[in-house]
Amino acid sequence: MKEMKKFFLLILWTVSAFCTVQAQSVTVEATIDSLQILIGEQARVRLQVALDADQRALFPVYQDTLVQGVEIVEMAKPDTQLLNGGKRAVITQEYVITSFDSALYYLPPMEVEVNGRRYPSKALALKVYSVLVDTLHPDQFFGPKSVMDAPFAWEDWYVAMACALFFAPLLWLMLYLVKRIRDNQPIIRKVKVEPKLPPHQLAMQTIERIKSEKIWQQGESKEYYTQLTDAIRTYIKERFGFNAMEMTSTEIIDHLLQVKDREAIADLKELFLTADLVKFAKHLPMMNENDANLVNAIDFINDTKEEPDPNAKTEPTEITIIEQRPLRTKVLLGVGIAALAVALVGSLVYMAVQLYNYFA
Description:
Immunoglobulin-like; three-stranded mixed beta sheet; 8 helices
């Protein structure tokens, strides 16, 4: 019999301890930041629940009054704070309340539901005082004050002054663009063209460049002879008037024999022959052969050049170029005019509003 009593006592103790642990795992606390307020003032009621992180809490939801005479102005969103490495949580819910009747209000316990079980907080109290009025001196009561004019501040007029300052330049610029787009006149430009150098001078400049680069010393014989013969072909085209650039070496020599003596063309023929061997037969000329062909090109130019008149003065030629105004320019002018018009209208409206508000 004694053993049965001990067994039942053990079961009761275990259940009691389990209930105590469960009860201690959830705590609900309600506080108010001000126990006394005047009519129309506000107070904050904070409802805080501590529970395990895996538990779910449901806070009480009120419509517009907490109790009769106490109104709820605002209900903030719950704020959650994790503790003990995320095992425990503290959830806080705030209610902003007010009252317009002077009295001592009893705020009943606020219940929080956790996993289907309700946990009440402690009750609160709120004392609402009315504003003291001195009825013995009614002459000290004054009606509402008249509207006072705000003091003048330059900071309020900076934008308006900037609009007025830039109004005239923007207006002038818009009128100028309107005139430009209305006249639709072509664009006239005058260009000074320097007189063209004689063919032999241009050819000698090219040969001097080829000579200074010395590309044959880098094993670029083909490139060297290509540049050298192109310079001679260009000179022949400008000097004698036939398209030597599109002719073979033999055809060039045949044309030259009709207008020049054979002695002047003999060295040129040797140059063209060596150039053809290098370009088409992969011939590798010696260094003295490269130098000799360069000299041959220079001698041919000197023997066949046309001396200019020493008394003639070369002056730049002025050429007048007339161009129609492109569509892109017209579009840009139109966009610029529209943007300036919007800016001007906006400035006028802003200044008018500022002046109206100031003198109204």
